[in-house]
């Protein structure tokens, strides 16, 4: 299997399966001397971890990070950083029915067809559990870009909708990653009912990035928007990506689109223009539904736990392009 590496100057390789001994990541390109805090890393992992929010999967994992290399006396060494998280709460028998049954929209059948063999327990490498390695990479990416703020939030989930203004007007951190925290009880009831019914739902996650300097991204194949798209669409349940006005541009005239620079979402010609970057992703409903969902430990909606993964992938792209721009001789990126 190929395709386990992401990035160029800031890069990482993830490894492990959902029901194997452990999952982990090896990160390359992190500069030396950056302050490392294991507690901060654990906070990011806890945001994604299963079993912490009512209405999501019942699987409970500590998701405790073990740093194997690349850090000494709470400072990065500039060498490859290896981190693992051990699996401690597998119930592989829950997936016995999936040995010969395939979930539509999941990688069950396509993996079997491609390799002729697969680990059906939790989806193997296609499991959402693989994303914990991305969250770890995102933490180290954030050390490279301390002046850039990345905030993702649920902008649409079933009957619930939120705007970027809702995000900016809230100071509380909702466990559901929905900016209108007064809706938490309603969201909990909604997800629990989906779970009881063996149903699932998709939605949208939007991203606001503040503090991005001018000049990130290349004008041809490595456009910033292209790398954002690849990073976000590589998340298993993500099915679409847009930035700025996105698909709304299909309904507007050129004079309307060009009337405001912010319509382009902080990216022009594939290069960051120094303004806030705004992006939106769409996530499909989880593939395990019906009796399989009732019998196993599955998320009726992946969005609450996907938000930190989205943030992590965005940070990895920004850190990668930060290093690329610095290779040009700064170009004002640190001003």
Description:
The protein has helices at 38-48, 108-115, 131-144, 164-168, 184-197, 224-233, 254-257, 290-295, 303-327, and strands spanning 5-6, 11-16, 22-28, 65-69, 71-72, 75-76, 81-86, 149-157, 160-161, 203-210, 238-243, 267-268, 271-272, 277-283. The protein has a single domain (5-327), classed as Chorismate synthase, AroC fold, CATH 3.60.150. The protein is an alpha+beta fold and 335 residues long. It is globular and about 55 Å long. It contains 9 helices and 14 strands. Residues 331-335 have low confidence and may be disordered. The strands form 4 sheets. A 5-stranded antiparallel sheet has the order 1-2-3-7-4, covered by helices on one side. It has a 5-stranded antiparallel sheet with strand order 9-8-10-14-11. A two-stranded antiparallel ribbon has the order 5-6.
Q: Keywords for this structure?
A:
335 residues, alpha+beta, five-stranded antiparallel beta sheet, 29% helix, disordered C terminus
Write a compact overview of the structure shown:
Helix content is 29%, strand content 20%. It starts with a strand and ends in an 8-residue tail after the last helix. The strands form 4 sheets. It has a 5-stranded antiparallel sheet with strand order 1-2-3-7-4, with helices on one face. Strands 9-8-10-14-11 form a 5-stranded antiparallel sheet.
């Amino acid at each position: 299997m190929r395709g386990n590496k992401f990035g160029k100057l800031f890069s990482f390789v993830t490894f492990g399966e959902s029901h194997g001994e452990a999952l982990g990541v090896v990160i390359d390109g992190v500069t030396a001397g950056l302050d490392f805090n294991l507690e901060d890393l654990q906070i990011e992992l806890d945001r994604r971890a299963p079993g912490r929010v009512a209405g999501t999967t019942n699987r409970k994992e500590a998701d405790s990070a073990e740093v194997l290399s690349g850090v000494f006396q709470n400072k990065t060494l500039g060498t490859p950083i290896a981190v693992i998280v051990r699996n401690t709460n597998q119930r592989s028998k829950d997936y016995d029915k999936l040995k010969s049954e395939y979930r539509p929209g999941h990688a069950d059948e396509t993996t079997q067809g491609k390799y002729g063999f697969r680990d059906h327990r939790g989806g193997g490498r296609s499991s959402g559990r693989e994303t914990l390695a991305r969250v770890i990479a995102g933490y180290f990416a954030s050390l490279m870009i301390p002046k850039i703020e990345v905030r993702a939030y649920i902008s649409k989930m079933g009957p619930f909708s939120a705007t970027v203004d809702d995000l900016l007007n809230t100071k509380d951190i909702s466990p559901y990653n929905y900016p209108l925290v007064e809706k938490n009880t309603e969201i909990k009831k909604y997800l629990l009912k989906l779970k009881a019914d063996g149903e699932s739902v998709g939605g949208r996650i939007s991203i606001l990035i503040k503090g991005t300097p001018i000049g990130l991204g290349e004008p041809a194949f490595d456009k910033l928007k292209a790398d954002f798209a690849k990073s976000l669409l590589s998340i298993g349940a993500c099915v679409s990506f847009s930035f700025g006005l996105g698909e709304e541009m299909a309904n507007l005239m050129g004079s309307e689109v060009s009337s405001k620079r912010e319509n382009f979402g902080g990216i022009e010609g594939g290069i960051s223009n120094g303004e806030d970057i705004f992006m939106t992703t769409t996530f499909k409903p989880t593939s395990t539904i019906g009796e399989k969902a009732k019998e196993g430990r599955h998320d009726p909606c992946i969005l609450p736990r996907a938000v930190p993964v989205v943030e992590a992938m965005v940070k990895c792209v920004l850190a990668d392009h930060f290093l690329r721009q610095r290779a040009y001789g700064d170009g004002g990126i640190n001003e």
